[in-house]
Structure formats: structure tokens, C-alpha cells
Automatic annotation (TrEMBL):
It comes from Phaeobacter gallaeciensis. Residues 1-23 form the signal peptide. This is YHS domain-containing (Seleno)protein. It comes from the Bacteria. Keywords: Signal.
Length: 158
């Protein structure tokens, strides 16, 4: 009977996370299970200076998304001040946001600018974005208010 309860609890948690991710998925780039940054540790970008996979045992839920951390220290830092570590534009591609779209951000294609984490979709996009970082951030910031709450598919069909 305990095995059955464990399985049912696990299924219930998965459904709850998936439902939360779908609700949050418009403003936040998370998987269908609610996993943010494809499991990479958001704090490590700032402390280690590179994308670092998080440990599936060290997690925190923030705005209906599940974040993983490489260490308990990183989790504590995140929980004290999540806004300091969250990627801009909900983890969507910074260049895409500048163009008025929401494309998946790749956590291995990143840059910290003025203590903010930015992700991009692909290597060639990252290279183009780096050609005018300040200009693209300005455009993305201006667009984000209009696209933040829209479904990515809706933006592509306009």
C-alpha cells in the first residue's frame, strides 16, 4: 500500500508541476514539468562564471518553476534574493525579445550584463546579439511589457 501511495503522490506532484508550468509558461520559459533553465543552476552563472548543471536533489520552487542548484549554498543565496539570479525575459532568448518574440533561451548561450543574466537561442543569434548588446537589451526591455504575458505561438502568428 505504501508503494501505491508513493506512486500516486509522485503522479500528483508531476501533474501539479506541469499545470503550474503551463500557467507560468507564458511569462517564464520552463519545461512542461516546470523545470527552469533546463536544470542549470541560476546562481552559478554569477559565482562560477559558467553554466553549471544543478543537482536534482537541491531544488527550490519560485513563481511556479523549479530551479536546481549545484550546492546548498547556491540554493540559500537564490532563496534570499531570487531576482538577483533569474534570467531576464523569463529565460526566453534576449535577441528574440528584442525582435518581439519569445523563443527558448539556451542556458549554455549566456552573458551577464550589468549583473543581469541573458540567454539566447543559438550560437549565431548570440553572436549577432553581442554585436549590439546595449541596443538589443533596450529593444527587448521596450518589447517585454507587450509580450511578457503572451503565448510564444501567438506572437509567431501575428
Amino acid at each position: 500500500m505504501n508503494k501505491f501511495k508513493t506512486i500516486v503522490s509522485g503522479v500528483a506532484l508531476s501533474v501539479a508541476l506541469a499545470t503550474s508550468a503551463m500557467a507560468a509558461g507564458v511569462e517564464l520559459n520552463a519545461s512542461s514539468t516546470g523545470l527552469a533553465l533546463q536544470g542549470y543552476d541560476p546562481v552559478a552563472y554569477f559565482t562560477v562564471g559558467e553554466p553549471t548543471p544543478g543537482n536534482w536533489k537541491i531544488t527550490a520552487l519560485h513563481n511556479d518553476a523549479l530551479y536546481r542548484f549545484a550546492s546548498e549554498e547556491n540554493k540559500v543565496a537564490f532563496e534570499k534574493n531570487p531576482e538577483a539570479y533569474l534570467p531576464e525575459y523569463g529565460g526566453y532568448c534576449a535577441f528574440g525579445a528584442a525582435m518581439g518574440f519569445k523563443f527558448d533561451g539556451d542556458p549554455t548561450l549566456w552573458k551577464i550584463v550589468d549583473d543581469k543574466l541573458y540567454l539566447n537561442l543559438a550560437t549565431d543569434i548570440q553572436e549577432r546579439w553581442e554585436g549590439d548588446v546595449a541596443g538589443f537589451i533596450e529593444k527587448a526591455d521596450a518589447n517585454w511589457g507587450d509580450i511578457e504575458h503572451k503565448d510564444p505561438v501567438e506572437l509567431q502568428n501575428q
